[in-house]
Design goal:
Cytochrome Bc1 Complex, Chain A, domain 1, outer membrane lipoprotein receptor (LolB), chain A, 3 domains, 13-stranded antiparallel β-sheet, 21 helices
């Protein structure tokens, strides 16, 4: 429940806020003017062209007519199953002295990530070439680099893969390396941590990008908590929670030969390839365990709109999605052609109408995303914030029009000719051919599927396409996700689509693993799990916070007498969110003043060590005596400076609690039983800086479970100070504050903290 900001509850709200310092798919179409020659010109004429169009001649732009498709025979693969169940395919092509070897392991895709461990398949795959029981990471890298080859690993939803490409003479090395990394990875702790940090860094960057957010939320909106709805790479929190045992268990149980496929493509004879596969992979053994995934939720009737507020965005990312089909569905080819008409290229309806004619985007597209078990149709674009509603109306209108089944013969023929013509160019290299052959095995398609692919495309009729369209493009049931500065179009959107269901999120609180996609603070009672303090636990607590003091500035921290902070942010209330400007002044040990500027009011609270007060438009009130402890706690938690100095000097004691976790981050925790109640302090296990505090605080509705999270530490005059704070009360986001300036040891007048006289 979100909170009302009433005068009676201003004290608790303001004090809680004071601790803010407590811390395109497809290819471009062709079009050119026809070249004309003068009717009177002869082959032997020496007359130079004038550059002028002769009288009576009219030039008109036109698309050049396509020529007849050139003959193309997709290569057939020789196939054999090894005794351990590994299926091997060989495509002999001697056009280039190159060989590509790809091992595809469907049982090790991210579809099989255990609950709460999203990103495990991806992290496992990334670590395969980072050392084995026979070679170090450097040995592997130097071996493949020396022969000018490549070795890559990855995991997507339906499979993990290991691919090596080398010259023909180095084929044995490729097989040796590929089998070694797939079967004998060592998962060295230092490599795990390096890859983990890299993965988390990449994810944090992606989560700040609107394009990534709309894609991730659209998948969640359509597939729910089914593995297809979760990010293959996981989230920063889930990746932090993956241990070495998770990695070794996943590789041991899921990298198995039975149900896996090996494709060897290039300048190699089948018998040589089969014999080499048997030599390097014949002793591999294992069968993957069973796995049950959650069901994909049904998309109910009507429009389902998810708004993700990203106030700093200057463009809105839009995604429309509907359920579609698995890759082996008989409807795939005609639906693929239909989607080419709708949004699968530069000349598609979406792109022509929204980009070329209206200029609302750099590109609009639709993708038929068909996987092994299910699929979806996703249409998307990005547009200027002010054109959000116009672009959305065009997108939904064009999808509705497509759903009527009105594809013309000309549109259909153009789409088919393009897809038929581009297929040979997408099936040339050993790597491309291997990918297509493996897709047959992965999706359970017939072995001769690609031999007949172009004729199957040619055979798609307008009747087929138009019969499918109402089923897959109807807007009677549609998921819509918009990521951007929602406040700029929120009201207009609801007026335009009053009957839609709405779900509103903030990008900063997004949790792709939560059922409602909202991040929740962990824990409730700060004393949970804490026993009576012992001398040893108190000594450990002092050592923990002394280390934190050293990380935050050491002796420089000890010399701070005053703190002056300017900040901006938001208060989240039931009556509506409010922008706020803050000026906080702290004079240790016990003076504090906070000036707060809201859109419709200016408020000030102060504490002079004895009296706490609140000044508001029209008057001044003294806070109740029991609120004094709230001021003292806020003073100590401002930037962590007061609490760290107090522990260092022995003014207060803290009890060590051990390893903990807050919002997926590994922490070390300690308990301070202060005058305002217990406060659980969380320190980042890596940086030793204060990361969060849990306590009970006053609120307009009474006592609230409060969690404050601090990050974005920056060095100010030799002291690490948190420039970003998020405060939660009773599981709901209460405030988010961004520091603008910090000054230490500025002179302060005692009158600033004295209750004003009105």
């Amino acid at each position: 429940m979100r909170r009302n900001l009433s005068r009676a509850g201003l004290v608790g709200v303001l004090i809680a806020s004071a601790a803010f310092c407590a811390a395109g798919q497809g290819q471009p179409g062709a079009g050119e003017a026809a070249r004309q020659t003068s009717a009177g010109a002869t082959s032997g004429s020496t007359q130079q062209p004038s550059g002028k169009v002769p009288g009576g001649v009219r030039l008109e732009p036109q698309m050049p007519a396509p020529g007849p498709p050139r003959p193309f025979d997709f290569p057939r693969a020789a196939a054999r199953v090894l005794t351990n169940g590994l299926e091997v395919f060989v495509i002999s092509r001697d056009r280039q002295p190159e060989v590509t070897v790809t091992l595809l392991v469907p049982s090790a895709g991210s579809f099989f990530d255990p609950p709460g461990k999203a990103g495990l398949a991806s992290l496992t795959a990334s670590l395969l070439p980072e050392g084995t029981s026979h070679r170090s990471a450097q040995d592997i890298a130097e071996a493949i680099d020396f022969v000018g080859g490549t070795l890559s690993t990855e995991a997507e939803s339906d499979a993990a893969s290991v691919t090596a490409t080398v010259m023909k003479k180095d084929f044995l090395l490729a097989m040796d390396l590929l089998s070694d990394v797939a079967m004998h990875p060592s998962f060295e702790p230092q490599e795990i941590e390096r890859k983990r940090r890299q993965a988390i860094s990449n994810l944090e960057l992606e989560l700040a990008d609107g394009g990534y957010l709309v894609q991730a939320v659209a998948a969640r909106a359509l597939f729910g908590l089914h593995p297809y709805g979760l990010p293959d790479e996981g989230t920063p929190e889930t990746v932090r929670g993956i241990g070495r045992e998770d990695l070794t268990d996943f590789q041991k149980t899921r990298y198995v030969p039975r149900g896996s496929f090996l494709c060897i493509s290039g300048d190699i004879a089948p018998e040589e390839a089969f014999a080499t596969a048997e030599k390097f992979l014949g002793e591999w053994a294992g069968i993957a365990p069973q796995f049950t995934a959650p069901a994909i939720p049904e998309l109910g009737p009507g429009l389902h709109i998810v708004l993700v507020d990203k106030p700093d965005a200057v463009q809105t990312q839009i995604r429309l999605s509907r359920p579609a089909i698995a890759r082996n569905n008989p409807d795939y080819v005609p639906l693929f052609v239909a989607n080419r008409v709708f949004g699968g290229g530069q000349n598609s309806r979406l792109n022509v109408r929204i980009r070329q004619q209206k200029g609302l985007t750099y590109g609009a597209y639709a993708q038929l995303a068909s996987r092994a078990r299910a699929g979806g149709i996703f249409a998307g674009l990005s547009t200027r914030t002010e054109s959000t509603l116009t672009a959305l109306r065009l997108m939904t209108g064009l999808m509705k029009e497509m759903g009527t089944g009105n594809v013309s013969a000309e549109e259909l023929q153009f789409a088919k000719e393009y897809l038929i013509g581009v297929f040979p160019m997408q099936s040339e290299t050993p790597d491309q051919i291997a990918g297509r052959i493996l897709s047959l095995a992965l999706y359970g398609l017939p072995p001769d599927y690609f031999q007949h692919y172009r004729e199957n495309l040619e055979g798609v009729s307008a009747a087929q396409v138009n019969a499918l369209a109402p089923r897959y493009y109807s807007t009677s049931s549609l998921s819509i996700v918009l990521v951007g500065n929602v406040s700029a179009f929120h009201d207009a959107l609801k007026q335009a689509y009053p009957d839609a269901t709405y779900e509103e999120l903030r990008a900063s609180e997004l949790d792709l693993m939560a059922a409602d996609m909202r991040r929740k603070p962990t824990g409730n009672n700060p004393e949970a799990g804490a026993s009576a303090p012992t001398p040893a636990a108190l000594e450990q607590g002092k050592a923990l916070l002394t280390a934190a003091s050293s990380s935050a500035g050491g002796e420089t921290l000890a010399g701070i007498r005053t703190v002056d902070v300017a900040a901006q942010g938001k208060l989240y209330q039931q009556a509506g969110d409010a922008d706020v400007e803050l000026h906080l002044q702290v004079w240790y040990p016990d003076h504090m003043r906070l000036d707060m500027k809201l859109p419709n009011a200016e408020l000030t609270q102060g504490f002079d060590g004895e009296t706490g007060w609140l000044e508001y438009p029209g008057g001044v009130t003294e806070v109740p005596p029991d609120a004094k402890s709230e001021f003292r706690r806020s003073i100590l938690l401002t930037g962590g400076i007061g609490i760290l100095n107090a522990v260092r000097t022995g003014a207060i004691e803290v009890q060590y609690l051990g390893d903990d976790e807050v919002q997926g981050k590994k922490t070390k925790s300690a308990l301070w039983r202060g005058p305002s109640g217990a406060v659980r302090l969380h320190l980042d296990a890596e940086t030793h800086l204060l990361y969060a505090a849990q306590f009970f605080s006053a609120s307009p509705q009474g006592t609230a479970e409060t969690l404050q999270v601090w990050d974005d530490y920056r060095l100010v005059d030799g002291v690490q100070f948190p420039y970003h704070t998020v405060t939660y009360q009773d599981g709901e986001r209460h405030s988010e504050i961004f520091v603008q300036q910090v000054h230490f040891n500025q002179p302060m007048d005692a009158a600033l903290f004295t209750k004003p006289v009105h």
